[in-house]
Amino acid sequence: MELDERKKKILQAVIKNYLETGEPVGSRTISKYTDLNLSSATIRNEMADLEELGYIFQPHTSAGRIPTDMGYRLYVDDMLSTREKELDKKDRKLDDKAESLKTMQEIMDKRVDRIEEVLKDMAKMLANNTNYTSLVSMPQANKNKLKFVQLTQVDEGKLLCTIVLEGNIVKNEMIQLDREIDQQTLLKLNLLFNNTLNGLSLQEINFDMAANMADQSGELGGLVSDILNAIVAAIGAADGIEIFTSGATNIFKYPELSGNENASRLISTLEEKDMLTNLLTDSLEEMGESSTGIQIYIGEETPVNSMKDCSVVTATYEFEDGVYGKIGIIGPKRMDYEKVVDALKNVTGSLDQKFGKGKKK
Amino acid sequence: MELDERKKKILQAVIKNYLETGEPVGSRTISKYTDLNLSSATIRNEMADLEELGYIFQPHTSAGRIPTDMGYRLYVDDMLSTREKELDKKDRKLDDKAESLKTMQEIMDKRVDRIEEVLKDMAKMLANNTNYTSLVSMPQANKNKLKFVQLTQVDEGKLLCTIVLEGNIVKNEMIQLDREIDQQTLLKLNLLFNNTLNGLSLQEINFDMAANMADQSGELGGLVSDILNAIVAAIGAADGIEIFTSGATNIFKYPELSGNENASRLISTLEEKDMLTNLLTDSLEEMGESSTGIQIYIGEETPVNSMKDCSVVTATYEFEDGVYGKIGIIGPKRMDYEKVVDALKNVTGSLDQKFGKGKKK
DNA sequence: GTTAGCACTCTATTAATTTGAGTGCTAATA
DNA sequence: TATTAGCACTCAAATTAATAGAGTGCTAAC
């Protein structure tokens, strides 16, 4: 059997109607809804075919039809491609992106700790506007190259180790020493670490190197390896992505989600945040897809178990060279994909708007 | 009418039974449950009195009784005071504590330096053990006294300002300069800031001082005030308390909470975290109450609106001198107060030991 | 003061009934 | 051959009715 034009139109109509109402849609509705001018009986026949093809199904005999994941997938792909065409028509500005990135970089430069606030606000805004759940990941350095290390004595026997990574990500680690240390030594240590570690990534700071450095430092050996451990720990900790969520309870607005106890599991996932990592780190490279970094997971496609009857849309933003973050929306499978994609595109693209374009360049 | 001993005993029995079953408790149940050897009819009379006194009520005619907030309050106060007496008598508590500390200790040993991780684990453990929702606040400096400032050149024209506050809380701020700066000047600036600001709190770094310092620095004046601004901003940011929650979805286990849409509001509150501030900063000073820093809010007593039909128990722990954090449990009003208080005491006890008092000597 | 006994109330549960949306199939129609 | 009208059938959801049971309040007796 083939998916001819008419079937496609009917499928489209079914899905569109279902997105709006959330109720299974019957043949009579379609008969009136479309401009096809077909009787409900004909629609019924076509719908039976569509069901056989796997695009729609009935929750039970004598109910209307509901799209399957496969149906949604067709619909979404269609939507995305026509959308792309439209964009091609209007001259799309690639440099627009470049501009917005500039501004983000400046935000970062100015307030190391405050991007957090910006992103939180963004998540909140997204959740409010869409009535779905939103999540945002802090920009994450892909390659954590060490740029700079600073050891400072804070108390007797207590060293503060400040580490700056490529992309100006700052980490602190407190080190407890078992002995006193004088200014002279401290200076020496600072020099040593900066000379040796500069430009290296976590992977490159291995055990050999640790042994080596410790050897060369003679009596300071133990100290050196202690500090090295602290540095590694701090960089490692930078791997744990920070994620903010907003509007978790919006899922209660959609009966098909709030009913079963999956709702609870979903909220747990959002609270734990560990599992979300899959969504937001996965495929940072494969952001080719639609060249906008937009990625859509429908139902079973999502990598997170507790979201198997949701859909998830994510977008990637670039923060600096090689430093990416992600923004996502979680909603029912019958979410308004068009609106969500738009919202995400706007948000990633309009960070500069929010903070004034005057600062670019 | 008086609340004589027998009434008190009956009330106790009603509450105890209700805590266990969650169902309204009737006269016959009490008649058998207690050692009072009274017929159900007598109990009925007494219960009518207790209702008139405001300690219990019927959800509807011909149902058993349920404690009112006032009833709970009596029960809890009683529990706390007898508990205090017991502790005074026996020193046996050490055994108990040592045992439960074992698990706690394991968590702690994992990573002393990553307080955040420790606290998160702790929250998770508490939620799992109690089946309620837990929340933990990062230790917060009461008075943010400046201990140490370090300026470091990261890029050309870019300064990293690392600030250490009393209690070893570290903040970073990136400063963009409009001109180059040489090592000599940097050294001078470092010296200047440390000498001038050391030991001062945010309130004490006022405009007068800014003007003063800028004046004294001659041509460096603009630079100095830029940096001063950065410092103030960083300290100010330290005011936002970080709070972790765990087990938010545990509230679904209690029908009286999960039913209405308050459940959703409660979860929103937990997600937002802003509102939780009230719970966890409030009354850091008034921790006198029972000299253990334990505070119990029953129903309407809680300062957070979305928790008006929950009970909240909070405890204070000391991180270092003058640096406190709080731990809280949120559950239904019929929570197992005794167990919760115990759990919190243990947890704060071991935290004190690990971080604060214990570690000191 | 305490208790036994009874009438009464109200909820919760289960079963029976009705309603209506929607389908599938068949036979007639263009 | 593709479309449509018509009808019998199905199933979920809503409505109603019937029943059981827990618990109370009150009264009269102990």
Structure description:
2 copies of one chain form a homodimer. Chain A is elongated, with a radius of gyration of 27 Å. Chain A is built from 14 helices and 11 strands. By secondary structure, chain A is α+β, with helices and mostly antiparallel strands. In chain A, a hairpin with a 2-residue loop joins strand 5 (about 145-155) and strand 6 (about 160-165). In chain A, the strands form 3 sheets. In chain A, strands 3, 4, 8, 9, 10 and 11 form a 6-stranded antiparallel β-sheet that branches. A 3-stranded antiparallel β-sheet of chain A has the order 5-6-7. In chain A, helix 2 (about 25-35) packs across helix 3 (about 40-55) and helix 8 (about 205-215) runs antiparallel to helix 9 (about 220-240). The interface of A and B includes residues 109, 113, 175, 237 and 246 of A. The structure holds a DNA duplex (30 and 30 nucleotides).
Q: What is the CA-based Rg of chain A, rounded?
A: 27 Å
Order of helices and strands of chain A: HHHEEHHHEEEEEHHHEHHHEEEHH
> Please, what is the oligomeric state?
homodimer
The biggest chain-chain interface is:
A-B, 39 and 34 residues
Average predicted confidence as pLDDT of chain A: 82
Helix percent of chain A reads 40-55%
Question: Which range does the strand content of chain A fall in?
Answer: 15-25%
* Biggest β-sheet strands, sense, barrel of chain A: 6 strands, antiparallel
Topology:
2 copies of one chain form a homodimer.
Chain A (H helix, E strand, L loop, with lengths): L4 H17 L5 H7 L6 H14 L2 E2 L8 E2 L1 H21 L4 H17 L4 H16 L2 E5 L2 E2 L4 E10 L2 E8 L3 E8 L6 H15 L9 H10 L4 H19 L3 E4 L8 H4 L3 H11 L3 H6 L13 E4 L11 E11 L2 E10 L4 H13 L1 H5 L6
Antiparallel strand pairs in A: 1-2, 3-8, 3-11, 4-11, 5-6, 6-7, 9-10, 10-11
Helix pairs in contact in A: 2-3, 8-9
The structure holds a DNA duplex (30 and 30 nucleotides).
